[in-house]
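= Tokenised fold =
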Amino acid sequence: MGQAIRGSIQGAGLLALALVASCSGGTATKGEKTASAVRHADAAVTVAPVDRARNVPTDTTVLVSAQGGVLKKVTVKSRNGPLPGVLSADGTQWRSRRTATPGTSYEVTVTAANPDGKITETTSSFSTVKADKTFSIESFLPSEEMTGLTVGVGMPVMITFDQPITDRVAVERNLLVSASKPVFGAWHWFDDKTVHFRPKTFWPAHTKVRVEARLAGVRGGEGLYGKQNQSIAFKVGRSQITRGSTATHHLTVKRDGKTIREIPMSAGQGGQWKYYTTSGVHLAMSREPVTIMTSPGIGPGQAGYYRMTVYNTVRISNSGEYIHSAPWSVGSQGYSNVSHGCVNVSPANAIWFLQNTLIGDPIIITGSPRPLEPTNGWGHWQEDWKQWLKWSSVKHFTADSL
């Protein structure tokens, strides 16, 4: 009996040992096979434009993709500098975010990794179409020299090019506006060399604005490409709006909604069309301590000719209209219109108005039969929003957050 029991115990132990050995050996073999099965292939990289592509349009997006892995590093270099780009959130795509330079060779270098961490490196190249000629910005307003860096709520952004632009869409898409407060606006082409931006309504007071003209390499027409990038930054000041009536002969100046000054005035006497002060939304275009004024359309020796020096003037149009000091008409100011089209105010009021006006402040005149033309000076606000958008290639947009 004792032997039977000993035999049973020994048999059970051998069986258990055999089972353990069998299980351990089987698991190890299986593990080796699994590890071998999950090894990943190298990450596959594709680049567009394809390697050695020639005459690539400058606005072509460089697109790099990784299949079976993620992108670790992408560089697109040329003798003119790198082409910046942005990587997707999942790390599988990279795309350029600037326009390439015309007539330039680019080298694309890509580093990618598969899930095992194995690195793959890829290089390719392409060259862009050559430019027959270039265009650049001739004037960019507002500027510190001409307007100061703090402007009124009606101030437009004004760009003039040195060459006619026929591909307006390409250029307009690369004119970027950023603002510290939400702004809804649009660009407007006045001619092939002139494009201006304004919000749908006046700028919010105390808004910081940055405008970037990312035009290097941008197509402006057949064989015409942008020469360089430029940018401006400015601040919109307090909201000051002046309203005047040729019927009541008064200007009312409101700052941030509160009346801060009432100014008696004398406007254009009429009789001839050129002697009416224009009705409409004017903007302060310049502040001049001294201005020489001459009679419009009349030369020396002709009846009605004059040439006179006036002081403390604020220009409000291109047709010779100013708000200025007129000591000779003080008796008529507040009562009747006796000027040749300007807005006459007293010397003290002229000094105050010049000192308290920002370039771009709106000055709204009513009561005259002669309307301000949208192209007379900065008569941008004479067009309603629908009219303004008519001459926009890209239409309206919300400015980027600054």
